[in-house]
Amino acid sequence: MSGGTLALTGLTRVHGPGQAPALEDFSLDVPAGSCVAILGPSGSGKSTVLRLTAGLDEPTAGTVRVDGADLSGVVPERRGMAMVFQRPLLFPHLDVRDNVAFADRVRGMPRRAARARAEEFLELVQLRGYGDRPARALSGGQEQRVALARALAAQPRVLLLDEAFSALDAALREEMHELLADLRMRLDPTILLVTHDHAEADALADAVAVLDEGRLLQEGTMRSLYARPASLAVSRLLGGRTEVAGVVRDGRHVSPLGALALPERVADGPGVLVVRHEAAAVTPPAEGDCTGTVVRLRRRGLRALVTVEVTGDGGTASVHAELGPGEEVPTGATVGLALPVADRWVVAAPTVVPEQPASPAEEVSRRR
Amino acid sequence: MSTVRIALAASRTGRGLLALWLVLPVVPLLLWAFADSWAFPALLPQDWGTRGLTEASAAGAGGALARSTLLGAAVALLATPLGAMAGRALASRQVPGSTAVLAVLLSPLVLPPFAVALGLDVLLLRLRVPATLGVVVLLVVAALPYTTITMRAAYAAHDRGFEDEARVLGATRWRTVRSVQLPLLAPALAGAAFLAFLVGWSDYIVTVLVGGGRLTTLPLLLASAASATGNDAQVAVLSLTSILPPVALLAVVGSLGRRGRR
After folding, report:
1. How many A-B residue pairs are in contact by the CB < 8 A criterion?
2. β-strands A290-300, A35-39: how paired?
3. What's the CA dihedral at B135, B140, B143, B149 to 10 degrees?
4. Which residue of A178, A239, A242, B181 has the fewest C-beta atoms within 10 A of its own C-beta?
5. Same domain, yes or no: A182 and A244
6. PROSITE patterns, per this entry (chain A) (predicted)?
7. Is residue A11 a contact partner of residue A209, using CB atoms and an 8 Å limit?
């Protein structure tokens, strides 16, 4: 089995008259055999992309193409896709084997052959011997494995994963990530997945599209997005913590941190400096690029995250930095901060937009 | 430990009393059904026999049983799918003014059936609707509240994600209904159909008024037998005949429900 090429062009979806579009002019290419993630917060329209791709909802505008063929007006069952949702949705009236055999059965394969093939796919997700169990007698992780096996058994040209691993605990999620990586090597499927977790997107996907409020903010590899986010919103969605407002003058970012050289030429004007906390390092005072006071320390396993407040020209700025394994710094200590030039990046300062509370209608449709 | 035992004993006693409460009224019926003579002071019938059975069958119990079964089945067959559709629409919250729609659907519960049947009888006569068809139509309307409420609750608890999943996996719309929706909703559908069957099975007023006495069902036969005197055995046989089929059906529906919950 190998996947097809998926191309989404100008997809727009307005759920009802008078409502803001859930998705606006969204385009994305998913090359055959690749895994592309759509990253966004809840309500960003990312699940809408999958529903439009699968044909479960009709786009208001735009096209879905697989291997060049336009799928407009094609019913979901004829699109050659398969989807795994956040809930496993195993059919409770069927046992595990018949769940996995479902796609073959509804396409008219004889029961015996479909069940034999189901066994193969159960083996692929390391659930050999579970075929006779009722669907309700499985743990959460096993259920999601069966759901994955059921989707793969449909031999989809595109596999859609809608937050498929989000409901699992951290250890199980890790296991599923490894399983998916393994399945990709063996079966070479084309995968479009949706997640709110940038670490999951990083772990699974070759490329990422960041979506917020129905609009595509940026796309590229996860590495490039971490290093060069297009906006403050992208930086925040990727878990960026440090945001220092300032002004760019002559290729330097001027802020309470001082005048910091930038890796690339940036137009003069106001801009926000972003530095990944993984890249920032704490040094002895006066050895780094600036000096400040530790105001907070959060332990996250062996590596602690410190917040350093730096006071300089024009006010105070907070910088977050990750310490080395086992390192500790007491709060109140004066430390230096090393911000490697290559890891500095300036994004546009946000234009002041008043917080728009979501309308009640939107809230309701979101909850549904 | 002893409190647990006491609680267990209390629960058993309670269940026993409840069973007694339900079964007790049937005991005299059973005795009467097979009593050829049972004069007042005696605790048990003096003569046992099957006179009640012969009399009841001579009065047309067999035909009435068949007509009642057909009437109940027809009402269930029509009211269940209608109730399922109404329940699905109401549960999806896509119906404008769904509270008002629900109120209209539930109104047969509130309106006195005698008044409704009398009023509609005139209308049905003017429209020249055949009497039997009129009975079925009115009873379907009377059964709709039960089927709609049952199916609305079932659809509210039903996850449409199952249907989306089935469609994406290659099942056509109709195949999805058959292979996913119906099996998942089977317990609720059986319950709704049972209630609708009971509406048709046990109706008296509509059958008398709209049927014009030509459609003799079990309740009609039973009522006419009970209003006369001296045929207690026959009345007992007819009563048992009206009780037993629903009880048997309930057992079937109950076992279906258990299988669905497993």
Report:
1. 65
2. unpaired
3. -170
4. A178
5. no
6. ABC_TRANSPORTER_2
7. no
Does any CB of chain B come closer than 8 Å to the CB of residue A109?
no
pLDDT given at position A359? 45
Q: Which fold has domain B59-261?
A: MetI-like fold (1.10.3720)
For tokens 């050289």, what's the residue? A261
Contact at CB, A89 and B173, closer than 8 angstroms:
no
What is the distance between the alpha carbons of residues A344 and A266, in angstroms, rounded to a whole number? 12
pLDDT of residue B259: 58
Question: What is chain A's mean pLDDT, rounded?
Answer: 89
Tell me the domain boundaries of chain B.
59-261
Query: What's the first-to-final CA gap in chain B, in angstroms?
Result: 31
Q: Report the predicted TM-score, pTM, of the whole model to 2 decimal places.
A: 0.80
Residue B4 contacts by C-beta under 8 Å, 6 or more apart in sequence? Answer: none
Contact B171 A106 (CB under 8 A): yes
C-beta atoms of B166 and A83 within 8 A:
no
Consecutive H or E run containing A312: strand A303-312
Measured between CA atoms, how close is A98 to chain B, in angstroms? Answer: 12
Question: A49 in contact with B at a CB cutoff of 8 Å?
Answer: no
In a shared domain, residues A215 and A254: no
| Same domain (yes/no): A133, A190 | yes
Tell me how many domains chain A contains.
Answer: 2
**B230 alpha carbon, distance to own chain's centre:** 30
Tokens standing for A304?
């602690």
Query: Which positions in chain B touch A75 (Cβ < 8 Å)?
Result: 167, 172-173
Shared domain check, A74 and A214: yes
ipTM rounded to 2 decimals: 0.81
Structural domain boundaries enclosing A17: 6-223
The residues of B whose Cβ lies within 8 A of any Cβ of A are: 159, 161-162, 164-173, 175, 179-180, 183-184, 260, 262
CATH code, domain carrying A325: 2.40.50.140
| pLDDT 10s digits, B193-203 | 999 999 999 99
Sign of CA dihedral A104, A166, A43, A184: negative
Which residue has tokens 């009841």?
Answer: B56
* pLDDT string in tens for chain B (262-residue length): 578 899 999 999 999 999 899 888 888 888 888 887 787 777 788 788 888 888 888 888 888 999 999 999 999 999 999 999 999 999 887 788 888 888 888 888 888 878 888 888 888 888 888 888 989 998 999 999 999 999 999 999 999 899 999 999 999 999 999 999 999 999 899 999 999 999 999 999 888 888 877 888 989 888 888 888 777 888 888 888 888 888 888 888 777 766 554 4
A interface test, pick of B164, B165, B180 with most A CB neighbours within 10 Å:
B165
